[in-house]
Amino acid sequence: MERFAIAPRPDHQQKLEAQGLSFHAWDDYWREDACYRFTLAQVEDIEAATAELHAMCKHAVRVVVAQGRLGQLGIPAAMHDLVADSLRRDDFSLYGRFDLAFDGRSPPKLLEYNADTPTSLLESAVCQWHWMEDVRPGTDQFNSLHDKLIARWRQAPGTGLVHVACIKDNEEDWVCASYLRDTIEQAGRPSALVYVEDIGWHEDSGQFLDLDNQPIDTLFKLYPWEWLGADAFAEHIARATTCFIEPAWKAVMSSKGLLPILWELYPEHPNLLPAYFAQSGLTQYARKPFFSREGANVQLWRDAKLLAEDTGPYGQEGFVYQALCLLPEFGGHYPVVGAWVVGDEPAGMCVREDISPITTNMSHFVPHLIED
Amino acid sequence: MQTKKRSDRVGLVFLGAATALLGACSNTSDEEAIEVRQDFYASLADCEADWGESLGDCSAIREATANGQLPQLGNNDSAAALANANPGSNTGSNTGTSTGSSIYSSGSSYRYAGPRYYWDRLAGLPRSIEVPGRIYPNSYLARGASQSLGNTHAGGVPAANSRAIGHSVSVARGGFGGGGRGGSSGG
Q1: ipTM of this predicted complex?
Q2: What is the pTM of this model?
Q3: Nearest to A205 among B7, B11, B85 (CB)
């Protein structure tokens, strides 16, 4: 694993915008003056760890539900039946992204699983693929996301319109949602965008409706379950006929409360870090809220000294304490490997780097290559 | 021979073009749930007195059935489809999001429906659900009594200066999205 400088494509801004990555220049989000090179063996390590971790997480979710521990993971009581029912039905799941600490030598370590509403999807699936075609045609990249997303949508329940929902006034989410619509259409299903705030409820028919009052039969929602569960319409979800993607059981998988459960079930696993619901004697640890996103409210502690922290609105739901695993440093940059899962299969990866050991929403997306 | 880890081809069907649409936004307030409303009238003249003639938004509807089933609304096919798709439910009952006078359950005769609208708080006017961009500056709600909508917002009777004989809220909106204010939903 190596980070090296490379000449940016002179027209990369136009190309990124043509591909739909409208926010590429925000805080220099997309950087192609450098890239990461992995060997095939390193990528195969990441791929194998991704498959194993996903299987472990699915098992852990079943254990949590079976042992009645949803509340321990911060899942509101009103959602417990929803989660259990969706798990029992094995409701369709599209994708997720592990965040892994990886230095190219040691086994990848699980930092967290963005299993419910992962973004960075267009840049991972499309933009870095086209970057590779332009700068290193014929080389390889751990990236079959686009193919696998389309194939996975062909397995989705139903045959009709798929509504894709995101919140208003957030361009990153809109872009991710729009790319997913692209993959839905390429899978042969019609799609429509509906803003989360515009979703309607028709009491008499027991259906969620879009702004045209069309029933929402299949809804991909780029909006986390813990927020859905706290909204006024939450009381209608169980009664509605809508198929939600991601399903409610992903609320468990995306809670950082799953990290202590994993450590409990798989102690000393090489891809896990010790994690607990209390500090439990850890002297070097990351304190993470159950539902934090993009590093918000994460604190890194070593010997009672706060090393780094990020602010945010999370934490009231509770915290987990994970043994500290500082990201490797490459010339002042701290990369985190995002390992994608589509369905139950590893499907690619992305690298985001920061100048802080906490990866935040100010991190940079840097493309990667496989070259031995 | 090494197996490639990459997609063979990555093509998009509409995403690049769709980004040109960025910036389109609603001028409804995200802080408040909106409700889709519709007023019903005994005559076309009454409806047009409330909503105006020029836009042609008043339409004839069938009479309610004896058991109060939701009638087919002339300008609201989807509502009719919903009712037909769910024959087991008493769509005419005045429950849940259907508020106002009990015109469905009573089986009262009414013949005209005004436009389906919601109250645009920024514009201070009712805004059409059916026709994007259409507002009703000459409606009864805009004629010096718009604040009365606030009084009926929770499901009261039509405003005092209206000739409507009934009032319904067919679809409740705004019940999702409370968690999304101020940040991305993704991670």
Answers
A1: 0.90
A2: 0.77
A3: B85
